[in-house]
TrEMBL record:
InterPro entries: CT_A_B (IPR003778), PxpC (IPR052708). It comes from Pseudonocardia yuanmonensis. Transmembrane segments: none annotated. It comes from the Bacteria. Pfam families: CT_A_B (PF02626). This is Carboxyltransferase domain-containing protein.
Length: 159
């Protein structure tokens, strides 16, 4: 089966999603949606906290996902998302970093020089990623809650 394309799957039929050849994740959209109990308005799973989704954890072999009621829409096997609407994947990606509220005025330029020497590793998920390179040094600043993606220290010597 190709990507970005609608397929008709009958009850009891098995769907297999192989390893991604580019990008980081695969998504499967199901007409009617996955019918799990919403948690804070979402049916997604947050595995680090063990909440949401099917059981709060990752899917394992043998799990059965409940499918919601079908919505009235025409069946269109073979319909696909055009190339112009697809997000590019693979290759080099630039990540924008903005100093947080507690950063001192000169922190942005110093941080930019440090970040130019690091790269993201494959150790990543939807929550965060690990950086590889010289450890980042931080100027002590006030501690504020984080609401946007944040560079945080994680133990000694890691970032």
């Amino acid at each position: 089966m190709g990507t970005w394309t609608a397929y008709r799957v009958r009850a009891g039929q098995q769907v297999s999603v192989g390893r991604a050849r580019s990008g980081a994740r695969s998504y499967l959209a199901v007409r009617g949606g996955i019918d799990t109990t919403p948690f804070l308005g979402s049916r997604s799973t947050y595995t680090a906290a063990g909440i949401g989704g099917l059981s709060g954890g990752p899917l394992v072999a043998g799990d059965a996902l409940p499918i919601g009621a079908e919505v009235a829409s025409p069946e269109r096997p073979g319909a696909h998302i055009g190339a112009g609407l697809r997000q590019a994947s693979g290759g080099r990606v630039t990540v924008r970093v903005v100093p947080g509220l507690g950063a001192r005025p000169y922190e942005g330029q110093r941080l930019a020089r440090q970040l130019a020497r690091v790269s993201m590793t494959a150790q990543a998920d939807r929550i965060g990623c690990r950086l590889d390179g010289p450890p980042l040094t931080f100027v002590e600043s006030m501690s504020l809650p984080t609401v946007l993606p944040t560079i945080q220290r994680h133990g000694t010597g890691t970032h």
